[in-house]
Amino acid sequence: MEAEPGTAPELEPEPAMEPEVEPAPETEPVPAAETATDDDPATDAAAPETATAVLDLDGAEAGADASDPAPALRLEKVSKSFGRTRAVDAVDLEIPAGTFYGLVGPNGAGKTTTLSMIAGLLRPDAGTIIVGGVDLQRDPRAAKALMGVLPDRLRTFDRLTGRQLLHYYGVLRGLRPAVVAERTEDLARAFDLTAALVRPVSDYSAGMTKKIMLAGALIHAPRLLVLDEPFEAVDPVSSEVILEILTAYVARGGTVILSSHGMELVERVCDGVAVIVAGQVLAHGSVDDVRGDHTLAERFVQLSGGLSDVEGLEWLHTYSD
């Protein structure tokens, strides 16, 4: 999430500890360190029974109006190049509101570049991006207000505690401190992070860091979530917690677009999917339409160029002594 120009909001002090607070940087936050493991029972506990409680608070705001015909997201001939490399090539996509949409493709296919342009982190060289009826290039502030973003390469103010980080995100989004405090408690309970709120984020495991960042993306009740590899490096318990919250969010009218290498997960939870290879969308539509008579993984392999050529590796079977 990009901070608006101006002075960073004052952070609420923690009663239990006094962490050093970083000033807001001009460009990108510092990377979060990962000093704990996802297997630590004291940090990543079982999925809480109140995992969808936060949706009861924000569902009306997050959900799109069912009578609104505007799609949650539309890309028209969107392209991006880096030097001579065409990372994204004239991509067209339309994602209806209230859907779970997957973006899949091999490494280097252009998924992260596409999501970064949708989130407003990169400017496209050509094309138009419409978020909830708002042109991202013409009115970026209004378009970004409709979105919550979880980038793949987590960068955050890791010297802040979890509570301070969510307070910071909420105030930057224009929420009143009292509302931020209430939503922080709801989100922490939903993500099973209540006990961790007083600890610096630098002490969080990879799974906990993903959860606190996703909580920050949700705190202003966005209509659209843009998630780049949200389940990468996350343990199975945390994955189920995240998935339960996202499923409830979509059921109440929110829209999720995510990238993932987990074909089984995309096949299980997504309504629609687009396959990107070499910067181009080779197939898109409902999951059933894209996979046809195959599994999504089989269809993905077909579209991305098939299996690698193992001819010439017969020497691997000689087994040196």
UniProtKB/TrEMBL annotation:
The keyword RNA-binding does not apply. PANTHER family: ABC TRANSPORTER ATP-BINDING PROTEIN, DOXORUBICIN RESISTANCE ATP-BINDING PROTEIN DRRA. The keyword ATP-binding applies. Pfam families: ABC_tran (PF00005). Residues 1-51 are annotated as: Disordered. It comes from the Bacteria. This is ABC transporter.
